[in-house]
TrEMBL record:
Coiled coil segments of this chain: none
InterPro entries in the cross-refs: MeTrfase_TrmA_AS, NA-bd_OB-fold, SAM-dependent_MTases_sf, TRAM_dom, U5_MeTrfase_fam
One GO BP: rRNA base methylation
CDD domains: AdoMet_MTases
Keywords: 4Fe-4S, Iron, Iron-sulfur, Metal-binding, Methyltransferase, S-adenosyl-L-methionine, Transferase
Homology family: Belongs to the class I-like SAM-binding methyltransferase superfamily. RNA M5U methyltransferase family.
Name by which UniProt lists this protein: RNA methyltransferase
Organism: Chelatococcus reniformis
Phylogenetic lineage: Bacteria, Pseudomonadati, Pseudomonadota, Alphaproteobacteria, Hyphomicrobiales
Catalytic residues (positions): 381
GO-annotated molecular function: 4 iron, 4 sulfur cluster binding; rRNA (uridine-C5-)-methyltransferase activity
Gene3D superfamilies: 2.40.50.1070, Nucleic acid-binding proteins (2.40.50.140), Vaccinia Virus protein VP39 (3.40.50.150)
Transmembrane parts of this sequence: none
Domain TRAM: 1-53
Binding-site list for S-adenosyl-L-methionine: 250, 287, 307, 355
Length: 428
């Protein structure tokens, strides 16, 4: 049914939200203040026409924007976009009782995303690759994606050629492509480990040949390396890292550097507090991944790096051995959800950095609250769990000195947050 609506505000995912006659309707692609006509089903409206466009509407940079679910916000002018990106964080912090004003949004898109996961589907023996339509399992096949770094310009073509080699299995695939200093690193998922043996052997051989033809640095299937023609290298501070296939990586090179700079700047508070200390700073880096913060922190501090993923820790281990002049780094494989560091362990550190997955770090933060830790730096990709963890720290006497939103996922609904928390009331 076509309905005329006036859009009141933007929702968390970038939809226009209309509140009318006691109902809330989410209209994808509509902006606040716009008068639109939409086909409404339940609480969702499909935008049919815009009778009165917003002055803050802009032309999307991508020709697929109207149908592709990869981006949510190419149609917003910068002031509206910036407000939308920060409002959800500000609201979550206010709800949690954290009064520290949010710093301005830091642009961390840099040259574009250095990693992309493209989906592949087979129809009539032909593979297509792209992203899903919004809230759908329908593939939008793409040839290019302007949010990717130039080194990933050929990602859709490469992914299509690789997926075509697996078309006979007729499985939905995810191909993760990462731009590294030595070329593309590709990991293919979705084939299943139980694919028929002989066919799989032939496919593996074809993939290895394709890696040569496409000049890939490395090609992996379900994380198992099929061929490494060159180690896929990433620079992290003075070190170079070969990340494990499919392991976590910050989305942009600029984003990683900006987050690391903010973490290091936050540690300045620990340095000031420890005047007269005749030993290096001791810092814990929890949820350290393959080490983008650890390796930079170790240029000035002793680091205890904790992470659940053995492959990420092995990559960090190799990187620290190859980097000159770093202070000691201790590695610990540990499930920080089930076995958070405990106060006697935490008390050894001058500062603790934590960068958990979306769920946040509640178990660890509760132990930090019970410890004598003087300084914590939180890096987060989720406003709600960040605010919850910040409130636990605040209740234990920590004060948020600064909270910085960092935009490395430009045009998406995701925003990174860095918070520096200093314990002002000493723990007895
Ligand atoms: C958001 S990533 C951050 C990684 C790293 N700090 C970086 O910037 O690349 C979160 C990390 O937490 C790790 N992780 C997830 N669950 C964990 C757990 N229960 N205990 C410890 N580490 C965990 C993941 O493997 C991942 O490396």
């Amino acid at each position: 049914m076509a309905v005329d609506l006036t859009i009141d505000e933007l929702g968390a995912r970038g939809d226009g939200v209309a509140r009318t006659a006691g109902r809330t309707i989410y209209v994808e692609g509509a902006l606040p203040g716009e008068a639109v006509s939409a086909e409404v089903t339940g609480d969702r409206g499909r935008l049919l026409a815009i009778a009165r466009p917003s002055p803050e509407r802009t032309e999307p940079i991508c020709s697929y924007f109207d149908c592709c679910g990869g981006c949510a916000a190419q149609h917003m002018a910068v002031p509206l976009y910036t407000h939308w990106k920060t409002a959800a964080i500000a609201t979550a912090l206010a709800r949690a009782g954290i009064g520290t004003p949010l710093a301005p949004l830091v642009d961390a898109a840099g040259s574009g995303r250095r990693r992309v996961i493209l989906h592949a589907r087979t129809h009539g023996g032909r593979a297509s690759v792209g992203f899903m339509a919004p809230r759908s399992h329908d593939l939008i096949a793409i040839d290019q994606c302007p949010v990717l770094t130039p080194a990933l310009a050929r990602a859709p073509g490469v992914a299509r050629q690789l997926a075509q080699l697996l078309a006979r299995f007729d499985k939905p695939l995810d191909l993760q492509l990462t731009a590294t200093l030595t070329g593309l690193d590709v990991d293919i998922r979705g084939l299943g480990r139980k694919a028929p043996g002989e066919q799989l052997d032939a496919a593996r051989l074809a993939l290895v040949e394709a890696a040569e033809r496409l000049d890939l640095a490395r090609l992996a299937l379900h994380g198992d390396i099929l061929v490494e023609r060159r180690p896929p290298l990433l620079a992290m501070g003075r070190a170079t890292v070969v990340p494990p296939p499919g392991g976590f990586l910050q989305a942009t090179e600029a984003g990683e550097q900006i987050l690391a700079d903010l973490v290091l700047a936050g540690l300045g508070e620990a340095r000031g507090a420890g005047k007269g200390r005749n030993r290096p700073l001791r810092v814990a880096d929890c949820f350290c991944g393959c080490g983008p913060f650890t390796l930079r922190l170790a240029e000035q501090a002793e680091v205890h790096a904790v992470e659940i993923d053995a492959a990420a820790l092995a990559a960090l281990d190799r990187a620290r051995r190859g980097a000159p002049g770093l202070k000691p780094i201790r590695l610990e494989q540990r499930d920080l959800f089930r076995r958070p560091l405990l106060p006697p362990e935490i008390d050894r550190f001058d500062a603790l950095v934590f960068d958990p997955p979306r769920a946040g770090a509640e178990a660890l933060v509760r132990q930090m609250a019970a410890s004598r830790l003087p300084l914590a730096v939180a890096v987060s990709c989720d406003a709600a769990s960040f605010a919850r963890d910040a409130a636990i720290l605040a209740a234990a006497g920590f004060v948020a000195r600064c909270i910085v939103p960092v935009d490395q996922f430009r045009y998406s609904a995701h925003t990174e947050i860095v918070g520096v928390f200093v314990r002002e009331k000493a723990k007895r």
